[in-house]
Design brief:
The protein contains 13 helices and four strands. The protein is mainly alpha-helical. Strands 1-2 form a two-stranded antiparallel ribbon. A two-stranded antiparallel ribbon has the order 3-4.
């Protein structure tokens, strides 16, 4: 092995390429082996995502209106089986909007969750009307929905552009300011804003903006990416910026898939490396990733929502193709 592979104890590529998980096979061909989208193997793997395994199981459970479970329980009362969470999972699994069921789910969320006034996404709908409740817009939800919709090809949709504008207008990166921000959307959500902005909200906002191709990023998007990345780097990914000897949340050190409102070191590094950051302040987090592989160059699934989602994905405390793929992506970008 050479280059970035020198930090691996073994090369897991052939394991990742097994047919059993077409999503991981597709992303390995594309992101690790760097095969073009028109390559025959890549096209075959892409088609298999929608026909075989987990994605087809999830889509088979969708209701006719484009939702899962009860229409009104798209966020809170159906964690993590509701439509919001299922859409986030499908986006991570590589499902395609060419399937009418994916498009129906996207339209359902845009109709029920997006605040018509601001473009942000709310966890409940307006009473007796379409659209998300203006007073219940959340930053992490907005980031997740914008990210998912961009993944499903909605980047140029005016509604998604309005969601991007919400992020660039309202997302904050406060790091222990004297007074909490006032006014909408900050009032009433101290956990999201307060004197220190919620880390998860920052991560999901940055994740959404990282999904926009560089050629399509506005100046406002670039400014927000820069502010968000510097906020995360000031925290050394997972530390307390005012006491770098302390880990912010112990669970961020345990890697999971799929990730919903939550985050971990691996997801955050994946966002930063995708944006092209190779900063000394990432070193400790990168070292953590390297240290968690086994002797076969594989990483375990340490956190999971299995038993609470529409379908189970992999097995806790066992080698995970998804976590391994994400770790390999980070190391490849960081060390190349």
């Amino acid at each position: 092995m050479s280059g970035w592979k020198t930090v691996l104890k073994a090369d897991p590529t052939q394991w990742l390429l097994e047919d059993e998980n077409p999503s991981v096979r597709y992303y390995t061909l594309r992101d690790v082996l760097e095969k073009p989208e028109m390559d025959a193997e890549v096209r075959t793997a892409r088609k298999a995502i929608m026909k075989d395994g987990i994605v087809s199981e999830i889509l088979a459970k969708q209701r006719g209106g484009g939702y899962w479970g009860k229409a009104e329980d798209f966020y809170i009362r159906s964690k993590y089986r509701g439509t919001v969470w299922t859409l986030v999972a499908l986006a991570q699994l590589g499902a395609e909007v060419s399937d009418d069921r994916i498009r129906r789910a996207c339209e359902f969320i845009l109709d029920r969750s997006q605040d018509r006034e601001s473009g942000g996404f709310a966890y409940v709908s307006r009473v007796n009307r379409l659209g998300g409740a203006h007073e219940h817009v959340l930053p992490c939800l907005t980031g997740n929905m914008v990210w998912s919709l961009i993944r499903f090809g909605y980047l140029d949709d005016a509604r998604v552009q309005k969601g991007i504008q919400w992020i660039t207008t309202y997302q904050r990166f406060d790091d222990g300011i004297d007074e909490a921000p006032r006014g909408w959307p900050y009032d009433g959500y101290e956990k999201c804003w307060g004197r220190h902005t919620c880390h998860m909200g920052v991560v999901k906002a940055l994740k959404a903006l990282a999904e926009i191709p560089p050629s399509k990023r506005s100046k406002a998007v670039d400014r927000t990416i820069d502010a968000g990345a510097n906020y995360i780097l000031a925290h050394r990914i997972h530390k307390r910026s005012h006491n770098l000897k302390r880990v912010s949340k112990a669970e961020w050190l345990r890697f999971g898939f799929p990730l919903m409102w939550d985050t971990d070191v691996l997801e955050i590094l994946g966002i930063l490396t995708r944006l092209g950051y190779k900063d000394e302040r990432m070193r400790e987090a990168v070292d953590l990733v390297v240290s968690k592989q086994d002797n076969q160059g594989r990483w375990k699934l340490e956190r999971t929502f299995n038993g609470r989602m529409q379908v189970n994905i992999e097995h806790k405390d066992k080698p995970s193709k998804w976590v391994t793929l994400n770790a390999v992506r980070v190391l490849k970008e960081h060390f190349t």
